[in-house]
Specification:
- Chain A: InterPro entries: ABC_transp_permease, BCAA_transport_permease.
- The structure holds two protein chains of two kinds.
- Chain A is mainly α.
- Chain A has one domain.
- Chain A is 74% helix and 2% strand.
- Chain A has helices at residues 2-35, 42-59, 64-87, 95-117, 142-164, 166-176, 178-183, 188-214, 223-234, 239-260, 264-279; strands spanning 133-135, 138-140.
- Chain A has a two-stranded antiparallel ribbon.
- In chain A, strand 1 (133-135) and strand 2 (138-140) form a beta hairpin.
- The longest helix of chain A is centred in the N-terminal third of the chain and has 34 residues, at 2-35.
- The relative contact order of chain A is 0.20.
- By secondary structure, chain B is α/β, with parallel strands linked by helices.
- Chain B has a single domain (5-235), classed as 3-Layer(aba) Sandwich (Rossmann fold), CATH 3.40.50.
- Helices cover 36% and strands 26% of the residues of chain B.
- Chain B has twelve helices and ten strands.
- Chain B has a six-stranded mixed beta sheet with strand order 6-7-8-3-9-10, sandwiched between helices. In chain B, strands 2-1-4-5 form a four-stranded antiparallel beta sheet, covered by helices on one side.
- In chain B, strand 9 and strand 10 form a beta hairpin.
- The chains are: A mainly alpha, B alpha/beta.
- Chain A binds chain B through residues 92, 166, 169-170, 172-173, 175-189, 287, 289-290, 292, and chain B through 54, 56, 59, 61, 80-82, 85-86, 90-93, 97-102, 106-107, 109-116, 142, 144-145, 158, 162.
Amino acid sequence: MSDWLFFIEVSLAGLGSGALLALAALAFVLIYKATQVVNLAVGELLMLGGYLFFAFAAGWGLPAWAAVPLAVIGGGLVGAVVERGIIRPMLGESAISVFMVTVGLGSVLIGLVELIWTADPRTLPAFISTKPLFLGEAYVSRKIAVAFAVAAVVIGIFLLLFRFWRGGVALRATATDQAAAYSCGINVPGVFSIAWIVGCATAAGAGILLGAIGGISPTMGVFGLSALVVVIVGGLDSILGALVGGLALGLIQSWTGTYLGGEYTNVVTFGILIVALMIRPYGLFGTHEIERL
Amino acid sequence: MPADAILEVENIELVYNKSVQVLRGLSLRVPRGQIVALLGSNGAGKSSTLKAVSRLLSLENGELTAGRIRFDGQDTAGMQPHALVRRGLFHVMEGRRIFEDLTVEENLTAATFALSGRDLPRGGFDEVYGYFPRLAERRGTRAGYLSGGEQQMLAIGRALIAQPALILLDEPSLGLSPVLVEEIFTIIARINRDTGASMLLVEQNAAVALALSRYAYIMENGKIQMDGPSDRMIADQDVREFYLGQSDGAGARSYRDVKHYKRRKRWLS
């Protein structure tokens, strides 16, 4: 019986971190869907979000309700600057050069953060109560529960927006055919900007939640690599894929970490990546092109 | 020059990648409310002309190095393509270019962005569905699964949503069966008559285009070779032979008599 309880607790913790993975994956998906750019700096933008919150909450002593939105907005601003300054001039260049630019951007962000806040890990001021939460008999850390709830709500909102909002149609149209989107009167550069702003703001929000659970350090961007696995397995252009893939990977990482040992998590994570790519190269939920016969 | 032209193109030169010159001093005009045809062989620069007008050529590294384009009396230099669409110039691109992953209805929704600042007429998409009942039947289908003819209808339907003053039509007959070509062109004529939208029509199918249009330009090698009212063009000996594939001589003639290639070359130079 207690074995079962333990398993459920491990699973709940896995779902919590899975929700964060899904949120970070959403940042990948938003930017990829609109601009066809795989933004490898998502992990570092996430880290930057954590540090921005740290600066507002610990440095300026702002309360959490002000510091959280400020940090998210800050992440969005960084996204806007990056899109206008670096990505838009690269429009029309090959996908691999834009990809490499985002790799460089990630390194620059790490360097900046180390210059400002040093390389030492820090803990965020507590803004989620540490009182444990019980689901039936199973214990869940309240931070993980909050992270899960926030991620679920945010992803749900995006799913609805994409399906029912006119702007969601514009974004999907832009993703399918830029020239045709222009010809329909869609402001394509505007769509790019919004995707970057919202994507980076989402990453920053995920960074705050992640930092609240495990503390922040300049290397926490590695989390972005796990999120990359999620989007590649789930499909680079699928929000649903990000959600399902994120939760699944969170569960799997939690199980392997507990039952096999922490050293197995990376082996299993990237093992899944390889197998998934062999079976469904366009991801579990990704679109593969329609071919009429 | 009369003032009632919706589109005036004056001596434009278009260069791709700063190296390949495609248009060499091309001029044409579209009077308000009329259909004008732009004919020519492959690679003459017809599609490039349309992209120059709609300014979509910037996406393909094309640049206007000389000349002027005026839409509705205003110089379009420096305008963004989407801004031009919102002012009433809609480009139905070659190859239909519908959004395959979106449903029929979502494709039309995407075109409502062309209305920014104006309202979608009451009844929404009913006007489009009125012209193309088949689209109404398939409104929930992903557009990629439509037949070629239905996709062309959708592409024209998107233009209708925008309530444009000028529609640029690039090869609406591409890849369609003769029956469908006739159906599509009948509807194009109806749209022109009902909405008063002017049209600049690029076509390989010269017979259909000349029948539909009031005035026609023929271009070769990036400039206008000849132009005139369409009914006069249909009667023209050279046009009949080189673009309509007809000749007056009855019965078989030997290749030596035709000297098609030489005559054509002389005509072009």
